[in-house]
Design brief:
ASHA1/2-like_C; alpha+beta; Activator of Hsp90 ATPase homologue 1/2-like C-terminal domain-containing protein; 27% helix; 3 helices; Alpha-D-Glucose-1,6-Bisphosphate, Chain A, domain 4; START-like_dom_sf
Length: 150
């Protein structure tokens, strides 16, 4: 057990678990609503990268796939490329639970460095997951990038 901060976000999406899984793991789909492509083979132990879609393909986040149970659960580590901390990377768990014609998506980002990183994660996940929900329910992302809203 760690005393490092964590953040949990729960949203409900009119979608199927398989569609939510695909939206989280397909590089082309993540580019549509996240502004980055999540790139991996999504096998436990494999590397993954959160690559920019601006043409540079630079990775802003890197990690390892800890657990992959399509279409229900994905666990990854998260770290800034080239930066190692004594406490190690943070960890993100995506839980995908079906309820009739909707899905409950629970995202938990744990082992964050401090409260400032927790606050940044809270703002970032709220924006990205709102855009994901809109994308899956309407076929298009929000008309404005929510992470740019002041």
């Amino acid at each position: 057990m760690t005393d490092r901060p964590a953040f949990t976000y729960v949203t409900y999406i009119e979608s199927a678990p398989e569609s939510v899984w695909r939206a989280l793991t397909d590089a082309d789909l993540t580019a549509e609503y996240w502004g980055h492509s999540n790139v991996s083979d999504w096998e436990p132990g494999s590397a993954w990268e959160h690559r920019r879609t601006d043409g540079s393909h630079a990775a802003d986040v890197v990690g390892t796939v800890v657990e992959s149970v399509p279409p229900r659960r994905l666990v990854t580590t998260w770290a800034e490329p080239g930066v190692q901390t004594a406490a190690g990377p943070s960890r993100v768990t995506f839980g995908i639970e079906p309820y009739g014609e909707i899905v409950r998506l629970t995202v938990t980002h744990e082992s964050l460095a401090d409260e400032a990183e927790r606050d940044a994660a809270a703002r970032g996940w709220a924006a990205v997951l709102s855009n994901l929900k809109t994308f899956l329910e309407t076929g298009r992302p929000l008309p404005e990038k929510p992470w740019l809203v002041p």
